[in-house]
Specification:
The complex is a heterodimer of chains A (about 450) and B (about 475).
Chain A (H helix, E strand, L loop, with lengths): L2 H15 L3 E17 L2 E19 L2 E7 L4 H17 L18 H4 L8 H17 L4 E17 L4 E18 L2 E9 L7 H14 L4 E2 L3 E7 L1 H14 L2 H5 L20 E3 L22 E5 L2 E2 L6 H6 L18 E3 L6 H6 L3 E5 L2 E8 L4 E6 L3 E5 L2 E7 L2 E5 H6 L1 E11 L8 E14 L4
Helix pairs in contact in A: 1-2, 4-5
Chain B lengths: L4 H13 L2 E19 L2 E19 L2 E7 L4 H18 L16 E5 L11 H21 L3 E20 L4 E19 L3 E11 L4 H6 L1 H18 L6 E7 L1 H13 L4 H4 L28 E3 L22 E5 L2 E2 L6 H7 L7 E2 L8 E2 L3 E4 L6 H6 L3 E5 L2 E6 L5 E6 L2 E5 L2 E5 L4 E5 H6 L1 E4 L4 E9 L4 E9 L2 E8 L4
Parallel strand pairs in B: 4-6, 8-15, 14-23
Antiparallel strand pairs in B: 1-2, 1-5, 2-3, 5-6, 6-7, 8-24, 9-10, 9-14, 10-11, 12-13, 15-18, 16-17, 17-20, 18-19, 21-24, 22-23
Helix pairs in contact in B: 1-2, 3-5
Classes of the chains: A alpha+beta (about 450), B alpha+beta (about 475).
Amino acid sequence: LKDEDICQFVLDLCRNEGATDAVVMVMKNEEKMIRFSNNQITVVKNLDETSASIFVQIKEKKVGINVYDLSKTKLKAAVKKAVATAARSQPSDVYAPLPKGPFKYDDRLMKQAGISLDMDILVGNVKEAIDAALKEGGNRIAGSLVGRNAHVTIMTSGDVFARANKSTLELSVRAFANEHASGHSLSIAAKPEDFNPESAGAEAGSLAKLSMNPIQGNPGEFTAILGPLVFADLASQVGRFASAFYVDAGISFLGDKIGDTVASEIVSISDDPSVAGTYGAFPFDAEGMPTRRTPIIEKGVLRNYLHNSTTAKKFNTESTANAGLIVPRPFNLIVEQGNSNIEKMISSIDTGLYLTNDWYLRYQNYKTGDFSTIPRDAMFLIRKGEIDKAVRELRISDNILRILKNVRELSRERKWVKWWEVDIPTLTPAALVESVRFTKSTD
Amino acid sequence: MVDFEDYLKMATDLASNGGASYAEARFQEDTFESNLLKNGVPEVTSFDTKRGISIRVIVDGALGFGATNRMNKKDVRDLVTKVVSFAKEASRMRRSKIQFKEATVGKEKFEIKPRIKFESVSTESRIELLKEADTAAIEAARQVGVALQGRYISLDTAITRKVIMTSDGADIRSYIPRVSIDSILTAFDPQKGYAQRTISLGESSGWEAVERWNLPVRLKDESINLGQILVDAESFESGRYDVVLGPEVVGIVSHESAGHPAEADRILGREAAQAGETYLNKESVGIKIGSEVVTVVDDPTIPHSFGYYLYDDEGVKARRRYLIRNGKINEFLHNRETAYEFGTTSNASSRSVSYDREPIVRMANTFVEPGDYSFKELIEEITNGIYVKNFMEWNIDDRRYNQKYVGLEAYKIENGRMTKRIRNPVIEITTPGLWSAVDAVGKDLEFSAATCGKGDPMQGVPVWTGGPHIRLRGICVGGSA
């Protein structure tokens, strides 16, 4: 069966079994990954996968089912199980019919060209990154490169039918100059011409070299420059917890704050999967609605939560085309640029810190936004407007909203970030933040 | 049910004929049902049957892995050809040759037989249970004067079937049912603000585990406690205290600062760009990292544990691993690849979470081995101390050296007695600082369920973390507002 035939077959079955609403999505994914460490390839991986995701509603009753065996027999069994379970289920509190199509989608998003997953080219990309990192001062280089061609077909009971390709390249590279000196950089792209393994490798190697001979950092409140990888981690937390689902569940620090000032007036964060040619661009959400730009924070003020049809009805608003069928989610976060740069920021600081990466962000309380995260890789002490020394072994122990409100400057230059720690593609500048709270181990 | 054994055999033969010095083929099927209740409302029931075949090979000293769910001979054959060819291509960028240490591999079947099968428990009764627990939680919070504003409760059942065959003769078949419940409760008081508690229960077991957990009573107790924490817990002076850590905290400490650092693939730098490295190195066996009373183990063979298995995904028989023994680093967690590099043998730490993920070095159930102190004995010798029963926030650096735990339910200990509740005690400490401060270990033993994240792509595997109560002398504890 062709993908659209599978969709039609399943959709007809859902209707016949008694579903009031149904979404069928067939996903084909071809993925190659090269992982490397100690300057050589650790493992190459190849994934060929086709699966179908079926979602049925009988008014307020909802059931989802993922199927990896796409034979007619299994699909039929899956639909029967889904609809029968929905029929017996207890109702949710809201019934929102699926959005009524057909919709017009942005051609530029629909017709994304596939990328070559030729192993020879991908191995060449890895070699470029490693060589550049070594040249700039790294000794030991590790990372991963992923190339992906996905094809998605969607059909819904709301007369939606659409097909789209999504192709991405993603490189994460970490260089070590010695045991306590490392740098991390990335290149992510939807087009080969935007993919730059060499510059990512060079940046990682250069940061590793600059961070040699670090001293122990001191705890306290400092003005800090949060490089793009760090600020992307915070911005992606904003994106994630802007989901109306988490707000409703009482586990979002953005809850009950629409219209409130939640950040400095220079902070604007939106979700925009409609920017053609970017990593997280995609024409439709999981309900088939055409994607669009949704401001989350505008000039420091919280403007919108991210919605699907159900959460929108519950919050008495419109869907922002961010379905997730149950949990709305951001696809492609964009933080507006400022007019500074990292050099200017450094020169404006008397005593402070410059962080290039962080990881392991955990909350003490999702509702209040109290959290901590650990600076990782190159981190520098700034004294009298200049980088003084590399430092290590500090932790940010603060509150997300407090940090956002203390943002004083943003850089003009921005970077696309997505890696192990930041799983939502995020375009972000570096940020200069006042009074960031740093702690460290005491014994 | 067909297990596609013929395909697995075909895949390893084809890979070997294509030049692979090692080939491993795995069929894995994971069948899930998830039920989600948010603020008392059933959100969705989800079903998922994820199944497919993977192949892993060593060709010319390079490692290749591939997976597909297109389960016909042609697609499996094409996959093997691709994976062998890609590994050959990758061997261009290998100075050293990857080899797997020889192992006595098994030809065995292991399974957990559920007393109550998941399929005998209807979706309706699952939701009914969650609603009953939700109601009990709200009522309990009300009794202590707080509103339980956010309640998120998910119930997941999963059945994992694996068949693993290797070119050197392993033939392992397993059937593991697992059940877990995760909940986040948010309590609110207009004067005091918010307090949150995350609860994770999990076992490799049938539905009988859920009956034993008695979720309504469990959530009722948790809600009362959370409400009391919110209303009664007081700020306190930062300073140096004797500290008793409860099993939940000891579990996360064992996992983060004894288990992860002992993963041999981290020591070799294989995870450097993702989950990070470790403060340990190849020569660290025998170094002193804690006091003599500290012994930390990882053991996949505990019946009904969340991280249970008897043979790993490379066909090696599992056993208890002594990571720290009497305060000294004793052994690392190995698969056959790292065992070769270290000149030792695999201790069966190779796990994969699904058919399309590479098996890598993982923990299973990591905990401090019990000692001989009762809880009363642990606290009665403390003049000025703190008892941290459980936690919310935690993290650790990527060398597994600097860690932070923020207590949720916590008490002052004064002159051998627990007195008032205290708010959010912060322990921020190095790994040797923590383990070296332990002077007494309780004789109790409790486990918590968790999902451990590692690998690229990320693999979340079920684990238990646990231990007895332990006592630490004179460590710094940060106070809070």
